[in-house]
Design brief:
single chain, four-stranded mixed β-sheet, 18% strand
Length: 403
């Protein structure tokens, strides 16, 4: 045990006025029929999962609140989801609306003279404890936790000043992650707006389409590549989000056959798509040479009619995915396929090559920025997990005033 640290059960960390753990009321006590337009807020899973105390707007009357006051929420309480998605946490901030928890939550009320809610929430949110909570969850069709499973958790309790310092350090990482997530979301919004402007026929910019635009069938602007690869060609795969990547980077078991004689060659500049899932937009522009499964189709852009980079974005657009689904053949979605003969009949309006280049440049830039932000988020998230492991176990000690 580290100097000044003790381990105590979670249900021993409360004060005298309120129980440490309090489950939400029975479902019959809070129903849609009991909601009113204004009054006392009902906190539910949506608030906890989203991390936003204002995510939903459900209220009960003064009388209902009085009847259910034992389930009331105060600033500094920790709310935890107990049904379905278990173990998600939210510390109720100062200024939150007065209200109660709903039947799917449990409230954790701590003695703040010995515990810091942000520290305890961080510990409960650590990967080790989250895995433990999942194991302790029980139920038939829906996972569920109870007060005994939660209350018996052994919690490290360092001196309160140290708890606050650790929580402050972790909050710094949380804030950085939140800012990057907001930046990524903003860039994704910009990308979607530009893609709609460029590709969506319902977008206002499509009215009065310039005369320079021409209508083609995809068979006029793409040629199917049906070549076999060479013995030393690497095995590639095509994913929904990452496009054409090395098969080893997929992160799933390799189910390919040893005999690769029927595998298809794909070259840089080609577009590969999943023949069975093109109706979901599974395609990508290749920057690699390699071979891919016969389940994929490989097409090569006709350079004076369509720019490969432009086509890669076009194929992800709502407009084109709708057409890919419409032209796919098969009785059910499990058997739908879009082979090249059907693919080649889809019609598309294309701007001149120079305009395609400009639009592809804009969309590529946004895509690259989103990718960089995603990698930064992965790095910060990994750093935070490492910090939590070191700080919440006392392996790394922090300096506080007086040290």
């Amino acid at each position: 045990m580290h100097e000044g640290w003790v381990f105590r059960r979670l249900d021993e960390l409360g004060g005298k006025k309120r129980p440490v753990l309090k489950a939400g009321p029975f479902g019959s006590a809070v129903t849609k029929d009991s909601y009113v337009e204004a009054g006392y807020k009902v906190y539910g899973q949506q608030e906890v999962v989203s991390g936003n105390v204002n995510a939903e707007r459900y209220y009960i009357s003064q009388k209902a609140f009085s009847d259910l006051k034992s389930c009331a929420v105060e600033a500094g309480d920790i709310l935890i989801t107990m049904m379905g998605t278990v173990g998600r946490l939210l510390v109720v901030p100062e200024g939150a609306e007065p209200g109660i928890i709903n039947p799917r939550l449990m409230r954790i009320s701590l003695d703040k003279t010995i515990t810091d809610p942000a520290f305890i929430s961080s510990f409960l949110g650590s990967s080790q404890i989250q895995r433990l909570l999942e194991r302790r969850a029980h139920g038939g069709t829906m996972l569920g936790l109870n007060a005994d499973a939660l209350g018996s958790l052994k919690i490290p309790v360092p001196p309160i000043a140290e708890q606050r310092k650790i929580a402050e350090i972790l909050r710094t990482w949380d804030e950085a992650i939140e800012k990057l997530e907001a930046l990524r979301s903003a860039n994704e919004g910009r990308y979607k707006a530009l893609a709609r402007q460029f590709f969506d026929p319902c977008h206002p910019t499509f009215h009065g389409r310039p005369n320079a635009w021409r209508e083609f069938e995809l068979g006029d602007v793409f040629r199917e590549r049906s070549q076999s690869g060479e013995e030393n060609d690497r095995l590639l795969s095509i994913t929904m989000n990452a496009g054409v990547i090395d098969r080893d980077d997929v992160g799933r078991k390799d189910t390919s056959t040893e005999d690769k004689s029927k595998y298809k060659l794909i070259l840089p500049g080609d577009i590969g798509y999943n023949t069975m899932r093109m109706w979901q937009g599974v395609s990508g522009l290749s920057t690699l040479r390699g071979i891919i499964s016969p389940a994929y189709t490989v097409v090569t852009p006709v350079s004076n009619r369509i720019v490969g980079r432009y086509a890669a974005h076009l194929f992800k657009s709502r407009r084109m995915v709708f057409d890919f689904e419409r032209y796919s053949q098969g009785l059910t979605s499990d058997t739908w396929n879009l082979k090249f003969p059907a693919f080649s009949k889809i019609k598309v309006f294309l701007p001149p090559i120079e305009d395609q280049e400009k639009q592809a440049d804009l969309l590529d830039t946004l895509t690259a920025e989103i990718s960089v932000i995603g990698k930064q988020l992965e790095t910060l998230t990994r750093q935070k997990r490492g910090l939590m492991q070191k700080l919440l176990t006392g392996e790394w000690r922090v300096k506080v005033e007086g040290d």
